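A brief tutorial aside. Many learners find it easier to grasp structure tokens once they have seen a single protein encoded end to end. The record that follows does exactly this for Putative ATPase (AAA+ superfamily). Read the sequence first, then the structure, and try to relate runs of similar tokens to stretches of the chain.
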Amino acid sequence: MALKPWYKIVTPRDDLKEGRPLDAAEFAVNLDLVRNGQASEDYLDPKQFFKRTYLTENLTGLAAEVIRRLSGERTQTSAVFNLATQFGGGKTHSLTLLYHLAKEGPAANNLPGVMTILNRAEIDTVPNAAIAIFDGKEFDSLSGRGGDDGTPLRKTPWGEIAFQLGGEKALKILKEHEEKLTAPSGDVIRKFLPKDTPSLILMDELMNYVTRTRKSGLADQFYAFLHNLSEAARGMDRVVLVVSVPASELEMTPSDQEDYDRIKKLLDRVGKPVQISHEKETAEIIRRRLFEWEGVPNEANKIIQEYADWVVEHRQQVPSWFPVDRAREEFKASYPFHPLVISVFERKWRALPRFQQTRGVLRMLALWVSQAYREGYLGKHKDILIGIGSAPLDESLFRAAVFEQLGESRLEAAVTTDICGKSDSNATRLDAEATEPIRKARLHRKVATTIFFESNGGQARTAEATLSEIRLAVGEPDLDIGNIETVLEALAPPNGACFYLDVSKNRYWFSMKPNLSKVLADRKASVDPKKIDERLLEEIRKVFTVGGGIERIYFPTKSGQIPDSAQLKLIIISPGYPATDSRTLECIDKMTKESGSSARTFKNALIWAVADDINQLKDDTKKVLAWEEIKGEKDELGLDDTQKKQLDEHVGKAARDVKESVWRTYKKIAVLGKDNTLRVIDLGLVHSSSADSMVRLILDRLRNDGDITDDVSPNFLIRNWPPAFKEWSTRSVQNVFYASPLFPRLTHPERVKDAIVRGVTNGVLAYVGKAGTKYDPFLYKTSVSPLEIEISDDIFIITSQEAEEYLVRTRKPACLTTLEIVSHQGECKPNESFTFSVKGYDQYDQPIDVEAIVWEVNGGEIDDLGNFTSPGAAGVYQISAHSGKICANTTISVREIHTQIPGEEFPIAEHGTYADEQVIWQGELTKQKWMSFFTKILKDIENDKGIRIHINFSITDNKAISQDRIREIEAAMREFGMDKK
């Protein structure tokens, strides 16, 4: 039966399972934030905090002694404790545990593990205590604390501690000491300490405060206060002072080191030094912090036993220092980790200057567990244990955490070239090409990763990976141990594929220096600078050419080279103008606001990619040119076959490196900020695995920051509606995203159409054209296609409120507005009789009943029913119909039957129809009838070559039209070939 992988037996924390980003801060509590209730729930909730805290032997002892002292017991305890352990060694976590104990008091008795502490202390219950916290990272003596939040101002550590312990009453005791910034004596300290309540004073990150206040002289006063407070606590029954002094020795100045030594000597003399954990307790601390841990599950016992049996079987091939006879206990103590995962940091890494013993390991392992858990459930592997070889070095966030602990980021090339992180990494490639057992076990990658960790990434030459350590680290039940040697031959010199791996007598280590380095150094010194500049620009273009979605402009020197248009543009500044040069930003600012000799309209459309320090990019460009020259002369240089093979790989790697360097160098982007000034954005640690293209990386960052958007909602348009506009032209809507820095930049102008479509469909806005006082078209609360949306100065959007008001205005009760006289003929003979009728139309141009018509005629007779008798004389007569104030007119031609004489022309009268061959119509046409006139009269004869239309229109109300509209009409008339007059 196959052994179960670890991720099906134990469960990581929820955030690790879900792959949420993890920071070292996850494992570094801020004591002041705990006191203020602003820390994460893991640290604020006492029950959750104690559940995830492993009570090491020393932590249990510290807590027990503190409880005894606060309870009034002076034997077997101390009043002052110094947690001056290695940087990142769990000191603040210990202070937090003491804080929760003192704050909860008797209620803490029920917290997980507290009974163990009480039994150790020989005390029945945890006492309540007054608590004061001083965090050197947080407290600032220049600005002080309080004064504007309802509490009195405190400007000194002693004032802050007194206030926390006894409020304003205690602070008044130190009034003069606060004003003069002078440390109080022991007598004064004893006055502000509570008399009837135990006091617990927790001080963290003292060196941070000392460093910041050294020049002001407060650091010396603080030292005096710490000395006096320590002596006062020693002389009192129920006062405990617990101090953490840490600072990274790597980051200390000589003055820091001097003060650190002075404080440490003081605390060691007056108090008790405490180291929180021992090496053997590290695994349990880690398991409680990273997993939902209730102890080793029963399902794991079979796995533990089989690994132990494998070690016993191969005892001659594993390190002599490993306790083979206690293998089962070792595997059980570290499950689900392989024992070497935990021990490598204690054996090989702890001497590194930047290594953080607890926090750093937790950070790395948290990222490791999160990645491995998700990959396991995605079917990428079925690792039985979490072994060194399975470290996810291909994940950039994890690599960054590893490099941080190693103190060396230049190992990126060694890892991604030789182990993993790129598709063509040597170990990864070899696994893909290997036999099935090796490929399935990912043995090349596991061996290379093990060497990397066991050799500190090459940071210390004495830290090498021995063959026996590699066997123990990657060996597992059913693995043919001979495959490990096979894999090492494929990886290591002289015939191996790795560029950074060295070997000597079965000892392996990675280094930062590739082979052929001397040849490379000599050749780089002779590369033509002109070739470097040319290649530099070529490589930058290669990187920025990949990826679409935005126009690119390379290396402009004048603003006129950048089109002023409503379209997003990425401008790549020449590397000769780095962001470190103040003149670069001045030049960018000028080109942003100018377009040739004019002011730029669409300044918000510009995104600037600016190089940072270009020295590394120049060097990488020089390197790729050098490698290519070396390759061209490889025969003349007398390289052996192995070196020639490596040379080919180096040329490829150099090309990749220069690409990476472009990514890293062009880490600054500049855009116009909302305040109309340039805003520079640092992309941070950038590399090609960050995105599929540099352009995508930049656009994604700007999307995340809200500077660009792929879409715009109609509600956004409503929220940002210009107050001066009742109607907002669609052209102006589109342009504003590229003109105003108050708006996000649209990746594509057409997205405005999509927003209008959604707005019209959802009734958020209406899409209209203006036709006098009416809207035509008027699209509102209806389905519409983007193809129907026109981006124009003459087409507008209006708000839903305006649309509803418009509908109310145009939907008044129907009333008669127009009359139309209907007749079956336009001419008649003298004394002929027939009937006229009338049609009525309302304000919506719809038929309406007409009552009480009054008829009039200037010749002949007509009755109330429209019955008309023509006069005896020929002529053209006008007939009128009235209904209230509404009137309609028509004419009728009365004539004798006339036989045309050949050659005779018909006379043209003022109005009416004059002959069978010719029709002339003249009269006034209301605007409601314009379309009907075209449909009923002109439509069917529009192709008649004999038709002529004469236009005569006037506007009598000079307030009904603006001068701008008049000019637009004149321009349109010229398009129709009409004189503007």
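Self-check: Residues 641-665 form the longest helix (25 residues). If you spotted this yourself, you are ready for the next section.
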